[in-house]
Design brief:
The complex is a heterodimer of chains A (242) and B (512). Helices cover 70% and strands 0% of the residues of chain A. Chain A contains 13 helices and no strands. A four-stranded parallel beta sheet of chain B has the order 2-1-3-4. Chain B has a three-stranded parallel beta sheet with strand order 5-6-7, sandwiched between helices. Classes of the chains: A mainly alpha (242), B mainly alpha (512).
């Protein structure tokens, strides 16, 4: 058991713990906090099923962003779609016997990384060249994009340029799932890739990446437009009636 | 006076997104509320000593009470989708009027004191200490938001700057820095019953005058009842309807519609105000107190239904919040929505063919419709999504022959605020109001130039007052703005009106 394997095993256990605990705490906070008034942005659906459709459109197609700015929508959507395919492709590192569809999407997942990188570069360019977006950007906004670009590029290097021993990588991660530490290849691209991924997992719950759970808790999007039909009273507001 | 000389923005043929001009609106601040008005609403009279600490305590309190605030403080990714959506940014070029930048004035403080990244890496994430400068920015720029929600339509997470600016105003009130205009008005509405401070005798007198005027005009004794117990309908309308132009023409329209419908109705001197400025300062408690007046009036008068007059933010509070704040309304007739908008009432009658119109009465005008922001993006009419767009348009088309919509990007849910809503309709903010109206004026100019539009109709008291004031700055007539029910009033044929022959007969008699 090499020091390298042990270091990365600890890193990934820690990153996973921070990610899960951080996200669960935030989601619990959002879920617990009351929404005392009906504030859907109208025209809004008048039924629960309508709200589900609205949210599906938002999350899958980025409907509001499409209405707002086509360039940001294009780059943002390319990035997220690419990321989704790439992540699904990575499932094979966590399954001894992969599901058939995970095998099926391997080639798409490979090339989706290009969509992901193009999207990220586009978003980066907007941040630099559009004066309004430059004005609202903090260093962390640029760094977040650079981090994702570096993760993407280091991954693509292993796919398209300098292959690593993916059988060993898979054994390492399957090992982690069973709480045993298997050897990890010492390739530079792999180590850079894994380090940055762990870093991303750690900062996820304390960064703007919270938009991922946040969108599901946004009252202007997830509320049913029925205030006249149904009385909506938060617990703290009910106290005022006593 | 802090009213600076300013240039009225130009109107372009196609909308332009202006280059950023940092700080050009930093001087724009409303007058600060005097201690007596602050204290009347339960706020400290002036800036408290440990205001930094108190402000953070209030922020925590609000984060615990409003999911919207907590989620919106965390979720923004600075994508920039909202940056060109605010009429105040488009009209002033001040970058702090971009919705995300306005939100960040509060978010930077939240980050600094309440997040890991902001505590340990403030520069990295744009977190800032709560200083006097930050408070000054809050006071300037959170009073440059009309809470119109246009940005929330375009945000991929539905982040609503109105929620943030309401919270910021409530924080400022809680440390003793309130806005004069809003807080004085809330005080008046909470004691006298309306924003203008009109007591019962003044109201009665005004309504009597209107009765005489309408009878003289039409020959029909249309009633304007006040405090009439046992009436079926309680009408709650913005107090501007009692005297301001063109608002009062709308009130005459409602009265004629009620008359023609043959229903008994009344207004209340106790709850003689539809607008609820409690919302503008984000105060649930103040908003509730004002809403309870409507409930009490309905109970005292023993009405069966509540109808609201033409007013935007008022309709938001009525439609979305009244049932929550002052409900349940189980003592009213369940066959009607509570409350109902006057447009819904009139539209129902039109659908049932109960109103007769002579459209040609409005032939001297070519109309367009200004969707009032809070009706469009924060309420509904009828039972289908988007009824708030269709119903007023259906009414206008039923009562006039010449109607044209403004370009599709500037109406319905994409509508631009008039520039005076959200507690900004005060003379000390005139520069902001004129500049903020620029996008709306630009869209109006398009249909004036291309389609010969002569007038714009609206269903909000603030829009009507604001348009009256700002239209002339852009070279239009101050009377271009009309009320939807003013159009109804013009075209409505009162079935018990004396016929023309009778008229002629009387004239002949008098001549003889």
């Amino acid at each position: 058991m090499s020091a390298l394997s042990v270091t990365y095993a600890i890193l990934f256990y820690a990153a996973t713990l921070l990610l899960v605990v951080g996200l669960v705490r935030k989601i619990a906070l959002y879920a617990r906090t009351p929404a005392p008034l009906k504030i859907p942005t109208t025209p809004a659906p008048v039924s629960r099923s309508g709200v589900v459709m609205r949210m599906v459109h938002e999350v899958v197609l980025f409907t509001s962003l499409f209405k707002a700015t086509k360039w940001t929508w294009l780059f943002g959507w390319l990035f997220h779609l690419g990321l989704l395919l790439v992540l699904l492709r990575h499932l094979r590192y966590f399954q001894a016997d992969t599901w058939f569809w995970v095998d099926l999407i391997q080639p798409f997942g490979k090339y989706a990384s290009f969509a992901m990188i193009i999207g990220l570069l586009g978003l980066f360019a907007r941040r630099i060249f559009v004066d309004r977006v430059r004005y609202i950007s903090s260093p962390s906004d640029y760094l977040m994009l650079l981090l994702l670009i570096a993760i993407g590029v280091s991954g693509m290097m292993m796919t398209f340029v300098a292959h690593t021993d993916i059988v060993m990588v898979k054994a390492f991660f399957l090992g982690l799932l069973r709480f045993t530490i298997e050897p990890l290849p010492g390739d530079a691209f792999l180590l850079v890739h894994l380090t940055l991924v762990a870093l991303l997992m750690i900062i996820f719950p304390i960064s703007k990446l919270l938009h991922a759970p946040g969108v599901f808790f946004s009252p202007s999007r997830n509320q049913v437009d029925n205030p006249r039909e149904k009385r909506h009273l938060a617990p703290w507001a009910a106290e005022l009636e006593k | 006076m802090n009213v600076a000389d300013f240039d009225t923005p130009e109107l372009h043929e196609y909308p332009l997104i202006p280059k950023l001009k940092e700080g050009v609106m930093a001087h724009s601040k409303p007058y600060v509320a005097k201690p007596q008005f602050q204290e009347a609403l339960g706020f400290p009279g002036e800036l408290v000593d440990n205001w930094e600490e108190k402000a953070l305590e209030k922020l925590d309190d609000l984060r615990g009470r409003y999911r919207s605030l907590q989620v919106y403080l965390d979720s923004c990714v600075k994508c920039g989708a909202c940056t060109d959506k605010c009429h105040y940014y488009l009209g002033t070029s001040d970058p702090k009027n971009m919705p995300v930048a306005r939100q960040d004035l509060l978010r930077q403080v939240y980050r600094r004191y309440r997040t890991f990244a902001g505590k340990y890496f403030p520069k990295l994430v744009g977190a800032k200490d709560l200083t006097r400068d930050v408070l000054d920015d809050w006071y300037s720029y959170f009073h440059q938001c009309s809470q119109c929600r246009r940005c929330s339509v375009y945000c991929p997470y539905g982040i609503d700057t109105a929620e943030i600016s309401m919270a910021a105003r409530e924080i400022m009130d809680s440390i003793g820095v309130g806005q004069k205009y809003c807080n004085e008005i809330i005080g008046k509405a909470g004691t006298i019953g309306n924003n203008l401070g009109l007591p019962e005798p003044a109201l009665a007198d005004t309504l009597e005058g209107l009765e005489e005027e309408v009878e003289e005009d039409t020959g029909v004794p249309v009633k304007f009842p006040l405090d009439q117990k046992g009436a079926e309908i309680l009408l709650v309308t913005p107090s501007a309807d009692f005297f301001a132009e063109p608002h009062v023409d709308g009130l005459i329209g409602y009265a004629k519609v009620f008359h023609e419908a043959g229903v008994s109705w009344t207004m209340s001197s106790y709850a003689s105000e539809a607008a609820n400025f409690g919302m503008f300062i984000g105060s649930y408690e103040n908003m509730r107190d004002l809403s309870m007046r409507v409930r009490k009036a309905a109970l005292d008068l023993g009405v069966k239904r509540i109808v609201f007059g033409e007013c935007g933010h008022a309709w938001r509070v009525a439609y979305s919040f009244l049932n929550t704040l002052a409900g349940p309304f189980d003592f009213l007739d369940p066959n009607y929505p509570v409350p109902q908008h006057i447009c819904e009432f009139t539209y129902d009658l039109i659908q049932k063919n109960k109103l007769k119109f002579d459209k040609s009465e409005n032939d001297h005008m070519t109309l367009t419709f200004h969707d009032s922001c809070n009706v469009a993006r924060a309420s509904r009419m009828g039972d289908k999504p988007g009824g708030q767009f269709d119903i007023p348009r259906a009414i206008i088309r039923a009562v006039c022959n010449n109607y044209v919509d403004m370009p599709a990007d500037y109406i319905k849910e994409a509508t631009f605020c008039c520039g005076g809503g959200g507690g900004l309709l005060t003379d000390d903010l005139m520069e902001l109001r004129v500049k903020g109206a620029q996008p709306r004026m630009e869209a109006y100019k398009r249909v004036v130039d291309d389609n010969g539009v002569t007038n714009v109709a609206a269903i909000c008291a603030i829009c009507k007052s604001q348009f009256t004031k700002v239209l002339p700055y852009y070279g239009f007539g101050m009377t271009d703005i009309v009320s939807v029910h003013q159009l109804v009033s013009e075209a409505l044929i009162l079935s018990d009106a004396p016929s023309d022959e009778e008229d002629e007969a009387t004239e002949t008699e008098s001549e003889a």
